[in-house]
Specification:
Length: 222
């Protein structure tokens, strides 16, 4: 058998053999690393999706079973530069219960979002509120009066204790400082609430999903 060996011009046979061995070693190492990664990936346990239920009691200042049965988003209160005003959701619901998609009151206009991905269900809906900001501002109770904040704190506490209703505060970004005293009153009274900032002049979107009842909410005041 006749063997043909090609030698690069200017290179000695020994140097050529060295380079060839280095190439073979590098390729073998790359294949070994790739095979190791594939084995590790195949052997790794699947990552759990969603919330992992545990038996230990979370470090919360209200009983842990409450959030599993508490109807979320039950009461909304706007915190505006002129003060606080409660949103009358029952007035909107009275019109929507008749099958309408849009309901209008003195506080604004609420529109249900209906498409293939949204169903009309008590526990699963999406709605967009176009607030009547000027009307809400006129009806607001000034928060600079100490008794107004205390009265609201007492109301929120009573609703939660008596009916399991949690209050959600829709706080205009420019009124965070005015909201602070009320917030700390609620903290000291250990009243669970939710609060979120809103932009005056823009719509407010309400969304309620079945998941709100099936998993522990992350928006609770800690």
């Amino acid at each position: 058998m006749i063997g043909i060996r090609l030698i690069r011009r200017g290179a000695t046979p020994g140097a050529e053999s060295e380079v060839g061995m280095l190439d073979v070693s590098a390729n073998a190492l790359a294949v070994l690393i790739l095979a190791t990664m594939l084995v590790i990936s195949a052997a790794a346990p699947p990552v759990p999706q969603g919330e992992v239920r545990r038996d230990e009691i979370p470090d919360l200042f209200y009983p842990s079973p409450i959030d599993a049965v508490l109807a979320p988003h039950s009461r909304y209160v706007f915190i505006l530069p002129s003060g606080l005003v409660e949103l009358d959701l029952d007035a909107f619901a009275a019109t929507l219960a008749d099958g309408e998609i849009t309901a209008k009151t003195a506080q604004g206009e609420l529109t249900l979002v209906t498409d293939r991905r949204s169903y009309r269900d008590l526990n699963d809906y999406r709605a967009s509120l176009s607030p009547a900001w000027s009307a809400l501002a006129d009806a607001a109770t000034p928060l600079d009066q100490g008794e107004a904040a205390q009265k609201e704190a007492d109301t929120a506490a009573a609703l939660f204790d008596d009916a399991g209703i949690a209050t959600t505060y829709l706080v205009a970004a420019e009124t965070l400082e005015a909201f602070s005293p009320l917030y700390w009153m609620l903290r000291e009274a250990r009243v669970p609430i939710r609060w979120v900032t809103v932009t005056t002049g823009r719509n407010v979107v309400f969304q309620r999903r079945v998941e709100d009842f099936e998993r522990r909410g992350r928006q609770w005041q800690r």
